[in-house]
Amino acid sequence: QVHLQQSGPGLVKPSQTLSLTCAISGDSVSTNSAAWNWIRQSPSRGLEWLGRTYYRSKWYNDYAISVKSRITVNPDTSKNQFSLQLNSVTPEDTAVYYCARWDHDSGYFTIWGQGTMVTVSS
Amino acid sequence: QSVLTQPPSVSAAPGQKVTISCSGSSSNIGNNYVSWYQHLPGTAPKLLIYENNKRPSGIPDRFSGSKSGTSATLGITGLQTGDEADYYCGTWDTYLEPVLFGGGTKLTVL
Predict the structure, then answer these.
(1) What are the residue ranges in chain A where pLDDT is below 70?
(2) Mean pLDDT over the full length of chain B
(3) What pLDDT is stored for residue A105 in this prediction?
(4) Is the CB of residue A66 less than 8 Å from the CB of residue A45?
(5) Measuring CA to CA, which of A109, B50, B82, B100 is 20 to 30 A from B59?
(6) Which residues of A touch B45 (CB under 8 A)?
(7) How far apart are CA A115 and CA B42, in angstroms?
(8) In whole angstroms, what is the distance from residue B70 CA to residue A46 CA?
(9) Whole-angstrom distance, CA of residue A11 vs CA of residue A15
């Protein structure tokens, strides 16, 4: 049974960096059959996909156009986890952030983390 | 504004049926699988439908999915108050971003 456990701060100051981690159990971050994603949800924007990392003989990343200049998603094979860094945050980045596993073959999110409410405020 | 278009809200009485539409284009829904997610406040989204019309283990057959051309539909029969939630369609786009969500539809069970 795959499980995703998120960790990271719930409060970030404007202009600083939002950092979250998603620990994987029951699967491997290096698997060829999945991609590891970050998604956020806010009342004004609904579900918004942010970015992902995946391994297909080498590591790849894809990012949403809306955050491409500010986002990094990195795998950590030694700890079997992956992370999100979002730079130069503003109050508009306030949202619930989720990590999620994407099934590569059929294209859907099979497992989600528990969610982290992140507030951007001074 | 989402590439995938859903109605902002739908409503129906308990026991009734409701459908939620998701409209896209040939580069996303028209050529790729559609999935549906239920999002209850304070919880993680839950997969309801994958590969257009398949239900994961544990999802009751009150939930159904279909796709025709560049549109997909989620159907819910025998509505219960516990079905009140936001519902999102999802897919990917051949030319745009690799993951797309609809704007979400709020279901109210009157």
Answers:
(1) none
(2) 95
(3) 84
(4) no
(5) B100
(6) 41, 47, 98, 109, 112
(7) 8
(8) 21
(9) 12
| Buried/exposed A111-121: b ≥16 CB within 10 Å, e otherwise | bbbebbebebe
C-alpha distance from A40 to closest chain B C-alpha (Å) = 11
Residue B1, pLDDT above cutoff 80:
no
Contact flag B44-A115 (C-beta cutoff 8 Å): yes
- Which pLDDT belongs to residue B43? 93
pLDDT tens digits for range A55-79? 999 999 999 999 999 999 999 999 9
pLDDT per residue as tens digits for the range B84-110 = 999 999 999 988 888 999 999 999 998
Alpha carbons B76 and B64: distance in angstroms, whole number: 7
Are A107 and B32 a contacting pair at CB < 8 A? yes
State how far the Cα of A83 lies from the Cα of B74, in Å rounded to an integer: 33
Tell me phi and psi for residue B12, to 5 degrees: -165, 165
**B90 vs A35: CA distance, rounded Å:** 15
Assigned token pair, B102: 């609809």
pLDDT score of A82: 98
Q: With contacts defined as CB-CB under 8 Å, which chain A residues touch B97?
A: 49, 62, 64-65
CA proximity to B62, closest of B73, B48, B52: B48
